[in-house]
Amino acid sequence: MNTTTQPQSKQQSESHLRRLFTAEMFVGESYRPIASAIIIIFAIGYAISFLGLMQYVAYLGPGLGDELNFQPYLSVFDQFYSSANVNGLYLPLLLFVGLSVINVIFTAGIVMAGYFLYPRLLGKPFPVSVLFTYFSLNAICTVGIFSLNAMVGLVALLLGYDFMAGLNAFTEFLIQLRQWAQQVPTLFELPAWLAFFLITMIGGFFHYWFHRLAHESRVLWLLFHRTHHMTPELIQPSAQAVFNAFPFFLFAAVPYVVIFSVIGKLITAEPLMAYFVIYKLFSAFVNLFSHQSALYRWAQGKWVIRALSTVTSEGVYHYLHHSAETDHNAPRGNLINIGGGLFFFWDRIFGTYRPVTDYKPRVGLQGIEADEMTTNPFRLAFAGIGQLLFELRYCQSLKEGFWVIFGGSDFTPQKSCDYVLKAKYNC
């Protein structure tokens, strides 16, 4: 009896697992109220939490922190408050508080406007299925990263160490890297504004090439950056967060922390947190338009938004970086308006700058229509890993296997399987 039930149980579990990765998510208009509630809650939470991400290296922070932490923002507030008490000048404090309040209101408003104005501006409601698919994808990737850390904690527990120490091992490792960077000698004592400019520009150079490499390297594209470009209709909650990319962000965070921390310490002994916080508060007013399909035409028609987007090297210009149009894609993907630094300096130097278009380009993955994309968030989350494992399993030679991993993103082996497609379109 056991000999028959065990194979059946195994077959049933395999069948359930297969269905988990092949089933499509069908979410109709009846879920619109839930979708609208998600947008409102997300918009408010995102606007407030952004104040705790000013130092976040994934947001091109200066290597001063990598966790949601309001302390850097509050420390800047304390600087203004203490200065006001000493000098009796409360105007800078009031301006800082006013800028913060306006930032939160504007951020929440733009996030909601990108969804609720979608029907009026684009003639159709934002697809509920897209929101649920990519919002779920973001959640799965977040859980995936936590699970990797939990596995380290479990290994630590099995080896006789504390589980929490293992769980937080990667965060502690990044903290140690930042502390190590503080041992680097400061070569220049520059005025604060000049130090801020140089840190932003030199750090932007490395960000430009890291970002570009994430498009041109096959393994980085599939495991790290492709999920950020999957979304066929962009609003903030449906845009896959780069710093949640599973599983590769854990490795990508290391060079960012090291380089940004070292650059900052070489140029100035002061962390310049006030400069970065104020810059982030201003830049948010235009960078929100980086991932807003419905608001693209409106934003590109405003010279103020275009000008400020040029300053931050993001904003409405970044939307073109998500374009799936043939004119905006090279053999190795979309390599325009990559960003980094100020004034699109590095894009202009390396020939990847492109002005905004009068029309709204189609976004998503080049060569794949929206109706061909799977709506299964599990399939999307593990598409890159699945494709690489499939190609390595069926590669024709060691040489081909080498290029599967180390080749450019334009390399295609003799046998491949793209799991971002629905199962009926796939191999």
Q: Strand count, sense and closure of the main sheet?
A: none
> Which stretches are poorly predicted, pLDDT < 50 over at least 5 residues?
none
Give me the secondary-structure category: mainly alpha
Distance between the termini: 37 Å
User: Strand-and-helix sequence, N→C?
Assistant: HHHHHHHHHHHHHHHHHHH
Helix proportion of residues, in percent?
55-70%
The share of residues in extended strands comes to under 5%
Instruction: Summarize model confidence as the mean pLDDT.
Output: 87
Number of helices: 19
Radius of gyration: 23 Å
Number of strands: 0
Question: How many domains would you count in the coordinates?
Answer: 2
Broad shape = globular
Describe, in short, the structure shown:
The chain is an all-alpha fold. 60% of the residues lie in helices and 0% in strands.
Account of the protein in words:
Helix 2 runs antiparallel to helix 4 and helix 10 (218-225) packs antiparallel against helix 18 (383-394). The protein is mainly alpha-helical and 427 residues long. The protein is 60% helix and 0% strand. The chain has 2 domains: 31-381, no CATH class; 382-427, no CATH class. The protein contains 19 helices and no strands.
Topology:
Elements: H1 2-22, H2 32-49, H3 71-87, H4 91-116, H5 118-122, H6 128-158, H7 163-167, H8 169-181, H9 192-216, H10 218-225, H11 249-267, H12 273-287, H13 296-300, H14 303-312, H15 316-321, H16 345-349, H17 377-381, H18 383-394, H19 398-406
